[in-house]
């Protein structure tokens, strides 16, 4: 197959020849047999890799399945996702991670790499079978109780020590539980005005500071999920200045949206579409997160794609589930927040959304530069069109997007997984 006339990382136009699932050749006016895809001058990026996806299977197939979640991922330009462990049953044994891994091999539109739970049942009391999950067919390297924080410092230390043996990483959902009991939205002026229980920045920052120190103490790898405050950025900058093995991610929604949407938005006040964990923060936080992603203090954009059925989301604020879907809008939101603002170029986007997450997750077949010999995992993206987000067009089973009706730039034109198109002309193959 030959893909004609694409601009790799936004550079000069070139053709890409794909053979046996690999990039065989890159250059001008390539010759060869087989199918031809006309790229029409759009941008070619390495296939995106998500470190933080909730596929909901097993247990909540009414919200998402491996099939629909990975279809959603492919439409967003992803060729691999890490499937979070807070399923039902929890992915805390070799059996469950292998089940998710097998579902991925059978039904997925992109590669599915299961994340293992840190503690049994995510209950924060007893370490799960980390070694058995690492040794399983799923080859787990990322462990997380995401949705919950590993708040016990002794348990967190043991987990960090344990995963060193197989080059694993603990991905922490940093939320001090006592400081966030009943918390509903960012603690600040607006939570005070709306009478909603506040979620203080310090609840995130205290855990990040503690975990950076623990990771340094035991010499292990720590990854911080969905960083949301300016203070967290300062702590990470300090920790990284010591050379500690710490990485961090930010979600697209924390790069674009702010807590004042809870008070006033086109969707009305108290609309639970904006209820998310960690909560949307202030404009100052958003500015700090953007700067941190630009300077590399934050390594990765991860979606925290969190599908919920309508009945769990369209209810009163305090009863509504936390989370928003994000796979199909991630690249557009990153373009809006980071590229069109001049903070990142396309090469840096490829780093934050493909190379860095693949490296942290130890996915050797993903995140490679687009060059001869690399697996043909790539995304064709047209940054030019601006269109209104239409959730009814999503492949996800859920519709809880905060961007419905918003106009965002860009469109994923095609996605290729080991040379096979999963999306062509914006549509699933
Ligand atoms: Zn989380």
Summarize the structure.
The protein is α/β, with parallel strands linked by helices and 429 residues long. Helix content is 29%, strand content 21%.
Any overview of this molecule?
Keywords: Hydrolase, Metal-binding, Pyrimidine biosynthesis, Zinc. This is Dihydroorotase. Catalyzes the reversible cyclization of carbamoyl aspartate to dihydroorotate. Belongs to the metallo-dependent hydrolases superfamily. DHOase family. Class I DHOase subfamily. By secondary structure, this protein is α/β, with parallel strands linked by helices. The chain has one domain: Metal-dependent hydrolases (TIM Barrel), CATH 3.20.20. Helices cover 29% and strands 21% of the residues. Strands 1, 2, 3, 4, 5, 16, 17, 18 and 19 form a 9-stranded mixed beta sheet that branches. It has a 5-stranded parallel beta sheet with strand order 9-10-13-14-15. The radius of gyration is 20 Å and the shape is globular. It starts with a strand and ends with a strand. The mean pLDDT is 97.
Topology of helices and strands:
Elements: E1 2-8, E2 13-19, E3 22-27, E4 36-38, E5 43-46, E6 48-53, H1 66-75, E7 78-83, H2 94-107, E8 111-114, H3 130-135, E9 142-143, H4 153-163, E10 169-172, E11 185-186, H5 189-194, E12 198-199, H6 201-218, E13 222-224, H7 230-241, E14 246-250, H8 252-256, H9 283-295, E15 300-301, H10 310-313, H11 330-339, H12 346-361, E16 378-388, E17 407-417, E18 420-424, E19 427-428
Parallel strand pairs: 1-4, 1-5, 6-7, 7-8, 9-10, 10-13, 11-12, 13-14, 14-15
Antiparallel strand pairs: 1-2, 2-3, 5-16, 16-17, 17-18, 18-19
Helix pairs in contact: 4-6, 6-7, 7-9
């Amino acid at each position: 197959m030959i893909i004609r006339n694409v601009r790799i990382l936004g550079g000069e136009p070139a053709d890409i020849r794909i053979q046996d699932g690999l990039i065989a050749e890159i250059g001008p006016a390539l010759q060869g047999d087989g199918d031809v895809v006309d790229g029409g001058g759009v941008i070619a990026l390495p296939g995106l890799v998500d470190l933080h996806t909730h596929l909901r299977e097993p247990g909540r197939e009414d919200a998402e399945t491996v099939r629909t979640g990975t279809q959603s991922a492919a439409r967003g330009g992803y060729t691999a996702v890490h499937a979070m462990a807070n399923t039902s049953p929890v992915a805390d044994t070799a059996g469950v991670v292998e089940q998710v891994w097998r579902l991925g091999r059978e039904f997925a539109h992109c590669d599915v790499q299961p994340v293992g739970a840190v503690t049994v049942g995510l209950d924060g009391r007893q370490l799960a079978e980390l070694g058995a999950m690492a040794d399983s067919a799923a080859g787990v390297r990322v462990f997380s109780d995401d949705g919950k924080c590993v708040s016990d410092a002794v348990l967190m230390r043991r987990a960090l020590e344990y995963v060193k043996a197989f080059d694993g990483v603990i991905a922490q959902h940093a939320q001090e539980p006592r400081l966030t009991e009943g918390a509903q939205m960012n603690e600040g002026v607006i939570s005070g005005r709306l009478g909603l229980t506040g979620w203080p920045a310090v609840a995130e920052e205290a855990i990040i500071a503690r975990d950076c120190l623990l990771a340094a103490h035991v010499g292990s790898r720590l990854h911080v999920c969905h960083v949301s405050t300016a203070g967290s950025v300062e702590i990470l900058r300090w920790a990284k200045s010591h050379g500690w093995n710490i990485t961090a991610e930010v979600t697209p929604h924390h790069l674009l949206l702010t807590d004042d949407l809870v008070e006033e938005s086109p969707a009305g006040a108290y609309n639970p579409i904006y209820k998310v964990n960690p909560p949307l923060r202030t404009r100052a936080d958003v500015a700090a997160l953007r700067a941190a992603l630009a300077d590399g203090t934050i390594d990765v954009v991860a979606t925290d794609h969190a599908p919920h059925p309508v009945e769990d989301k369209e209810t009163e604020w305090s009863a509504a589930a936390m989370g928003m879907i994000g796979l199909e809008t991630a690249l557009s939101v990153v373009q809006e927040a980071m590229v069109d603002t001049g903070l990142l170029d396309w090469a840096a986007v490829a780093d934050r959304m493909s190379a860095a997450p693949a490296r942290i997750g130890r996915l050797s077949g993903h995140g490679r530069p687009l060059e001869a010999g690399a697996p043909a995992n790539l995304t064709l993206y047209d940054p030019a069109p601006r269109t209104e987000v239409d959730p009814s067009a999503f492949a996800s089973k859920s519709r809880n997007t905060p961007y419905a009706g918003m106009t965002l730039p860009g469109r994923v034109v095609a996605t290729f997984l080991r040379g096979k198109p999963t999306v062509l002309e914006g549509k699933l193959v």
